[in-house]
Structure to design on (1095 residues):
């Protein structure tokens, strides 16, 4: 559960840092934070919104509250109650039932399809289609918030791709050039071996717990050109037992048992692997491209240590697994509440993407509050917008941009592949065990593990 | 009418007022949920819409889940190991300690100390002790005598024994204190009687002490089984059920159903199955304590 | 108490025996005291263990016993005290020392500021207070329910006493964790009231009150109080409330002490339930927060946080040691 919580946590941070993400293809300048909602029958409505920064982040919190005030001025009939709620998969349903879930709440791509299928998030197609940029979303991003019939259940506000994070200091200690990160999986393995030998730290580590094991195995599979599910949500075929996943596991097995280059801890989750990396105990690991934000704010990493590159892609269909954040609306919200919630998302999240002033103001606040600005993200609309937004806030960047260059220069050339559409968390949970088995049992039978996992998930998907 | 008056006169109202706290808390937080558990296990709910009746589907789900038997096996294994480590040690300690004429208070205090350490603290601390590198705390200590390094919780075969070791550390003290109290009640005449026949120390332990403790031994045994079947914090915080589900217990499964995958129906169904088993154990326990107190 | 029990209250079978009422207490107390006194003098003839005086005179036994005693002492210190002493050491060491030489004594000096950092930056202060608050409320409701309930069932004894006692007793057969999910749903939507207790301390306090063990413990104790005292008070015109407040409660202090201590300690140790019903971080007690803190602070500060979280329970234990040891052993089922 940590994994989910935290993974989402990052997405959240990204959303905060989203001065980066460009948007709104139309380029029409009107701050789309539509006053349009004000027309018609503007009955008074109160909504609560998630992700108010906690009191420990004073600057960010004040900025958030200031935006709330501004919003209320523009929409006199809407009252906004900011809430510190942050997504947590383990308590989500409870908060929904217990009435403590805000009207508009943020959640990760991974859980999008499950929430839609369980009827735990509202259909906001009509409201979203009113937005001027409704047609400009990157289709593969929009896909995450749509059901099979094309109805829309949320607004994607930030996206990231998985990257390879590495410790430049350990690279140097091991005699490797930190400006020349590995380009292929063979090189990853080789570098890991050298780092382990020369520094005694884990050359390469991977998350395995709380669904992150499956998440990372899926990432690795995508990078080698395989898929975990084929077909749409309605008629899905589980393909866990595929040659690429097998190859991925064989590689992990070799690194663990032949090279002994993966350290001693094989029960990392999202929080603990970040902590260990920030503490200099890990040479390389895979994680969301936005993890740097949390490495700074939560784990106090030394910025000089940090390096980020893209995952090596290998094979015809190879792609990078993407993720991100969505804002959705409570399923029991009234029409007026839904409308107000979408207006809020439009104003708070989207205007920053469309409007230079909003982007700059946001970046200013982030810098003041000591939060990172400039961590790489992926486009929600298209690449040009992203470049545009990055330009707007270029003066405010406070992250070691050069050390992230290998990633930034190449990520847009990598095909982005969404997470498995059906029961992603359950699939990940099943694969946690597979990855753990390979890393903790030398004689693990990869073939058999995959067959079993495939059968189990097929049964689950069928049952759902 | 008369009855009512009599009821009021005899203090019926104050009795009722005094009973309210008990009736309300038990009604809401014990009796109702227990009844509701039965109902819920035949329903599907997403906590938002009205629950729907789905017959035995929840039970099909849990029994069809490959992790069901894994978790049952793990839980039984945990219980078995906990008995293996945790059952004799407190007994031996207590029998020894009861012979000491000096410092019994100090010994008892030392033995009981781990029991008061909050489980979360203990588990997180031991999680660190179990660091599998050569500089891990336990591996360093064992390294002094040329053992290890061991993989502890990083290996499917060692993970469960490691959890049990920690749990035993955290709980054995309480059992020691129980046995100590029980030992004081072993009647002196019994020892005197066999000594007349020239019984040795081992004979006395085997034929007097242990038989005299048999009831308390049975009770702690049952209580331990009941407790170990509800093991949660250790695997949850130490291994997350890994590696490769080697430490996924029944309660962890219940938790995962409910709070990781949002399947409250399956979670309740599994709870109910566990509850039936534990109720049987409790009934045995209850009979044991009763038969003892009346004997 | 028993091995591996997560919910001491529920599994304190013998707790009943603590309920030895004043009328019987002298005997039991003397018993215990005499037991402890064996340390100092030759024991009274009926107070003996396996070894007879004759056994003790044999050199082999004497030495064997001495060696055993030394071994047990060393073993207990290493096993029980060791981890806590190590934690105390590590809490004021640097992260690198703890990682590289976990058993060396401060190779790079003592780092006291870990404690302050944990208390302030990691916000242990807030979570500490939350925990105190959780424990206080749980204590109050447990005591309230146990005294009023026990009093009605033991002293007032209305007609349905048997039925009610049975209903309370029955809940003992259903271990708390098993009703986890239904109880959780009850808290989400309290029937008839239609409110949600989620993210409020009531969600922890009120279910804590429904503790059958406490009720039965107190009932049993009050059952054994001399009834002629109650009759005398009634004749003097004392109603049920006055009887409770001025007669029964003062006589029940020992048992209330026992219930209180275990209520507080249990609340301090509880993890799963507050984890579920208090998703709001600002409200969470230490147990729930520590695993999260681990991921966000450096190791030295984390270990300092662990140490701080343990100090209060250990202090309570040391202060009320005798009460613990007498009742944890819980005269228990043995004499119940």
């Amino acid at each position: 559960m940590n994994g989910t919580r935290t993974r989402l946590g990052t997405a959240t941070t990204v959303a905060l840092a989203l001065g980066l993400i460009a948007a709104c293809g139309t380029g029409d300048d009107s701050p789309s934070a539509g006053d349009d909602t004000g027309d018609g029958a503007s009955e008074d409505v109160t909504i609560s919104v998630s992700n108010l920064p906690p009191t420990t982040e004073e600057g960010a919190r004040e900025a958030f509250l200031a935006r709330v005030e501004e919003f209320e001025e523009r929409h006199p009939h809407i009252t906004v109650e900011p809430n510190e709620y942050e997504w947590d998969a383990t308590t989500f349903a409870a908060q929904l039932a217990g009435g403590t879930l805000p009207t508009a709440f943020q959640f990760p791509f991974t859980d999008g399809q499950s929430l839609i299928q369980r009827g735990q998030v509202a259909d906001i197609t009509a409201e979203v289609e009113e937005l001027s940029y409704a047609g400009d979303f990157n289709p593969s991003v929009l896909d995450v918030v749509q059901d099979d019939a094309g109805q829309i259940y949320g607004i994607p506000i930030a996206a990231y791709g998985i990257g390879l994070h590495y410790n430049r200091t350990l690279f140097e200690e091991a005699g490797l050039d930190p400006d020349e990160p590995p380009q292929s999986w063979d090189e990853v393995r080789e570098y890991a071996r050298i780092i382990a030998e020369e520094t005694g730290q884990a050359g390469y580590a991977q998350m395995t717990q709380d669904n992150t094991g499956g998440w990372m195995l899926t990432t690795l599979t995508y990078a080698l050109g395989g898929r975990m599910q084929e077909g749409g949500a309605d008629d899905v075929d589980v393909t866990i037992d595929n040659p690429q996943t097998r190859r991925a596991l064989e590689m992990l097995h070799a690194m663990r048992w032949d090279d002994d280059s993966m350290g001693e801890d094989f029960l990392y989750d999202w929080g603990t692997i970040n902590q260990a990396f920030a503490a200099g105990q890990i040479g390389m690991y895979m994680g969301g491209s936005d993890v740097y934000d949390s490495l700074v704010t939560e784990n106090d990493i030394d910025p000089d240590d940090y390096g980020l590159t893209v995952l090596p892609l290998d094979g015809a269909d190879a792609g990078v697994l993407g993720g991100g954040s969505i804002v959705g609306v409570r399923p029991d919200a009234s029409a007026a509440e839904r409308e107000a919630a979408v207006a809020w998302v439009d104003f708070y999240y989207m205007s920053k993407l469309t409007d230079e002033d909003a982007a700059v103001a946001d970046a200013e606040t982030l810098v003041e509050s000591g939060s990172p600005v400039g961590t790489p993200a992926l486009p929600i609309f298209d690449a040009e917008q992203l470049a545009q937004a990055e330009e707007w806030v270029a003066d405010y960047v406070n992250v070691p941009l050069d050390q992230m260059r290998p990633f930034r220069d190449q990520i847009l050339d990598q095909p982005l592949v969404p997470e498995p559409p059906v029961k992603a968390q359950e699939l990940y949970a099943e694969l946690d065990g597979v990855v753990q088995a390979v890393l903790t049992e030398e004689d693990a039978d990869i073939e058999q593990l995959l067959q079993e996992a495939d059968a189990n998930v097929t049964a689950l998907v069928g049952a759902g | 009418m008369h009855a009512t008056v009599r009821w009021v006169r005899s203090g019926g109202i104050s009795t009722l007022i005094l009973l309210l706290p008990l009736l309300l808390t038990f009604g809401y937080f014990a009796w109702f949920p227990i009844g509701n558990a039965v109902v819920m296990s035949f329903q599907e709910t997403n906590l938002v819409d009205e629950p729907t009746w789905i017959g035995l589907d929840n039970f099909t789900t849990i029994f069809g889940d490959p992790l069901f038997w894994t978790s049952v096996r793990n839980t039984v294994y945990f219980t078995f190991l906990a008995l293996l480590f945790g059952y004799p040690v407190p007994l031996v300690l207590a029998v020894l300690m009861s012979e000491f004429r000096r410092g019994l208070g100090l010994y008892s205090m030392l033995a009981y100390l781990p029991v008061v350490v909050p489980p979360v603290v203990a588990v997180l601390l031991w999680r660190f002790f179990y660091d599998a590198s050569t500089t891990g705390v336990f591996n360093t200590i064992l390294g002094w005598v040329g053992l290890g390094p061991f993989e502890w919780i990083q290996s499917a075969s060692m993970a469960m024994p490691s959890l049990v070791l920690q749990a035993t550390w955290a709980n054995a003290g309480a059992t020691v204190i129980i046995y100590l109290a029980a030992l004081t009640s072993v009647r002196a005449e019994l020892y005197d009687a066999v000594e007349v026949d020239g019984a040795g120390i081992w004979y006395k332990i085997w034929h007097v002490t242990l038989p005299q403790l048999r009831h308390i031994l049975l009770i702690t045994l049952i209580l331990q089984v009941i407790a170990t079947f509800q093991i949660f914090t250790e695997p949850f915080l130490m291994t997350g059920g890994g590696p490769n589900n080697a430490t996924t217990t029944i309660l962890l499964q219940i938790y995962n159903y409910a709070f990781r995958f949002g399947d409250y129906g399956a979670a309740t169904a599994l709870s109910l199955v566990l509850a039936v088993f534990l109720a049987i154990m409790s009934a045995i326990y209850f009979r044991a304590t009763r038969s003892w107190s009346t004997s | 108490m028993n091995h591996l029990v997560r919910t001491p209250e529920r599994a304190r079978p013998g707790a009943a025996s603590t309920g030895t009422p004043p009328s019987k207490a002298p005997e039991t107390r003397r018993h215990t005291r005499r037991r402890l006194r064996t340390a100092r003098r030759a024991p009274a003839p009926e107070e003996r263990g396996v070894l007879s005086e004759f056994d003790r005179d044999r050199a082999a036994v004497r030495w064997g016993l001495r060696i055993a005693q030394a071994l047990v002492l060393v073993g207990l210190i290493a096993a029980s005290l060791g981890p806590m002493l190590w934690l105390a050491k590590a809490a004021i060491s640097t992260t690198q020392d703890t990682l590289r030489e976990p058993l060396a004594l401060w190779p790079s000096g003592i780092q006291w500021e870990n404690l302050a950092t944990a208390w302030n930056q990691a916000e242990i202060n807030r979570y500490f207070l939350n925990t105190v608050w959780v424990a206080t409320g749980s204590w109050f409701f447990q005591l309230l329910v146990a005294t009023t309930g026990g009093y009605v069932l033991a002293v007032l004894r209305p007609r349905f006493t048997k039925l009610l006692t049975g209903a309370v007793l029955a809940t003992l057969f259903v271990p708390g964790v098993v009703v986890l999910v239904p109880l959780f749903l009850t808290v989400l939507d309290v029937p008839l009231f239609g409110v949600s207790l989620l993210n409020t301390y009531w969600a922890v306090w009120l279910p804590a009150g429904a503790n059958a063990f406490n009720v039965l413990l107190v009932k049993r104790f009050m059952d054994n109080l001399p009834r002629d005292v109650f009759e005398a008070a009634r004749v003097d015109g004392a109603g049920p409330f006055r009887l409770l407040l001025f007669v029964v409660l003062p006589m029940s202090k020992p048992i209330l002490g026992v219930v209180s201590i275990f209520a507080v300690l249990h609340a301090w140790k509880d993890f799963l339930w507050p984890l579920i019903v208090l998703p709001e971080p600002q409200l969470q007690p230490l147990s729930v927060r520590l695993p999260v803190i681990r991921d966000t602070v450096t190791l030295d500060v984390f270990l300092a946080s662990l140490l701080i979280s343990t100090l209060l329970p250990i202090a309570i234990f040391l202060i009320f040691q005798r009460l613990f040891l007498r009742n944890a052993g819980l005269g228990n089922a043995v004499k119940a």
